[in-house]
Amino acid sequence: MSDEHKLKELRERIDAIDSDIGKLISERARCALEVAAVKKAATESPGADTTAPTLYYRPEREAQVLRRAMERNSGPLDDEEMARLFREIMSACLALEEPIKVAFLGPEGTFTQQAALKHFGNSAVTRPLGAIDEVFREVEAGAVNFGVVPVENSTEGVINHTLDTFMNSNLRICGEVELRIHHHLMISDVTRQDSITRVYSHAQSLAQCRKWLDSHFPHVERIAVASNAEAARRVKGEWNSAAIAGDMAADLYGLKILAEKIEDQPDNSTRFLIIGTQEVPASGDDKTSLMVSMRNNPGALHDLLEPFHRYRIDLTRVETRPSSSGTWNYVFFIDFAGHVDDERVANTLHDVGNRAADLKVLGSYPRGVL
């Protein structure tokens, strides 16, 4: 068989497969519309709570679908790529039921927007806001369904502003996203490469690329700005500057990437939280986040952590922040594996609550899927 004939057969096979995929996606979309109709009818039935919003987006259901897609994956696409494809199909089908509105820490082109699209898909309606507390306020006011805010970076640690905002908010954590962060050095079409005297970026990005800058641009001024997208915007019209930002910012502002992946740590990643108003049922692989205030007594930290050890609960993070209620009082932010509906978790929270001055469950939510 000639190569040309073999290619013709393969292309015909691909065309047939594409036809089947299209039919199945359309069938799935029709099922999604039927689901929406059933949910709407339930809220309009006699005796139904008409004040409660219809929940079209179910975080635990989405997580289960993505996990099954990865479990069934036999290659050659890797699990992350398979999950991304299914995420976009679900996003498009959900938009048929009701487009989901998401606020994120802006402006456009930031890693937070990238995290929002990774979690909700490109059919979500995203809205950039200028500060973390603004994202919280938009969700609390009901102007959007969810918000996306950064909470910690593997290199630079926690984002304290996010933790502090939870102290005065009734919002719940509904999910998490972990995003691999790649920083690129970029210039505009008017930049003179041999005349670069300043580099713009967010303070954390500058810190994450410090060694690379020390080696390649030791004498260039490093200027911290509000976001990497803002850095890219500034460079667009300057002949003597460069920016450190991600792919989305380069595409948004039409910049040329001069050097790729200049972060000092190759496994650099940032964790983002999905904040909303709904409680999320167990998905089968969950995390729970707490905010705990302890009395200022000797052994307070031991008293706080002992029940987790006794019930064999896996702690994934413990952070301390000063309390706004008094000098030298502290609030502990704790993440652990499990859901509040789990018996061991419920027993642990009961014991911690008896020892704490105050305990607030920020949310139980599906563990981030890739």
Automatic annotation (TrEMBL):
* Chorismate mutase domain: residues covered: 1-101
* Top-rank taxon: Bacteria
- Tell me the ranges covered by the Prephenate dehydratase domain, including all copies: 101-277
List residues of the ACT domain.
289-366
List its EC numbers. Answer: 4.2.1.51, 5.4.99.5
**According to its UniProt record, where is this protein located?**
Cytoplasm
Question: Which PROSITE patterns does the entry mention?
Answer: ACT (PS51671), CHORISMATE_MUT_2 (PS51168), PREPHENATE_DEHYDR_1 (PS00857), PREPHENATE_DEHYDR_2 (PS00858), PREPHENATE_DEHYDR_3 (PS51171)
Q: Which residues cross the membrane?
A: none
Under InterPro entries, the record lists: ACT-like_dom_sf, ACT_dom, Chor_mutase/pphenate_deHydtase, Chorismate_II_sf, CM_dom_sf, CM_II_prokaryot, G/b/e-P-prot_chorismate_mutase, Preph_deHydtase
Q: Which reaction does it catalyse?
A: chorismate = prephenate; prephenate + H(+) = 3-phenylpyruvate + CO2 + H2O
**Function summary:** Catalyzes the Claisen rearrangement of chorismate to prephenate and the decarboxylation/dehydration of prephenate to phenylpyruvate.
The name on file for this protein is: Bifunctional chorismate mutase/prephenate dehydratase
**Which gene is annotated as encoding this protein in its UniProt record?**
pheA
